[in-house]
Amino acid sequence: MDEYLFPPPPVASLPVLAESRRFPVGRIFCVGRNYAAHAAEMGAEVDREAPFYFLKSAHAVLHSGETLPYPPGTGDLHHEIELAVAIGAPAFRIPAAQAEAAIWGYGSALDMTRRDLQARAKAKQRPWDLGKNFEGGAVLSPLTRAADFRPEGQRIHLEVNAAVRQDSVISDMVWSIGELISDLSHYYHLAPGDLILTGTPAGVGAVVAGDRLSGSVQGLAAVELTIGAAE
């Protein structure tokens, strides 16, 4: 007798550069307003007391190079290029100085956003889920093992139709990777398979059907996306 009433969804996973085995994805934690210039362009300020987060589900995972149909319910789809941190060891209530031991690897990511829905939620002081957590809303590159990449001041940039939209360095992040992992570990039992999208620099903007996006964190695999017609 089958254990389930219907087949469970397949495990979301990401390819790993130069390896055959894949990285299974659990939770996706996203950091809000982690670049001061981006916070300013959105009419907000950075909360210097503590970072804040929103989540995307594994259903949001889309592989680099695929096409995202223009999502339903929005007329203002935005791009946000980010550094993704992949967790590979349990972490609970750890100090920032020990956070590196929990990191499995890194990748480039796009946090796609239904900006009009997010703005509507903000205006009503409601959660951002409709604006942020939707199918294909987390576009991810193949991962690079932590041993092969050390985050310092690398360039992070995004082009839309070969025109640069976002261009910064990851050292401009308000909260460091270690600080983010430590902070999250005081609220969650972080586990292998978790991802942290560490925030986006200034320059976010709208995309439309037919646009081609390409971006990366220097030294990591690029993340590429085509915006398709609405379904």
TrEMBL record:
Keywords: Hydrolase, Metal-binding, Pyruvate. It holds the Pfam family FAA_hydrolase. It comes from the Bacteria. It comes from Paracoccus halophilus. The keyword Methyltransferase does not apply. PANTHER family: ACYLPYRUVASE (PTHR11820), FLUTATHIONE S-TRANSFERASE (PTHR11820:SF90). This is Fumarylacetoacetase. Residues 28-226 form the Fumarylacetoacetase-like C-terminal domain. The keyword Metal-binding applies. GO terms for molecular function: acetylpyruvate hydrolase activity; metal ion binding.
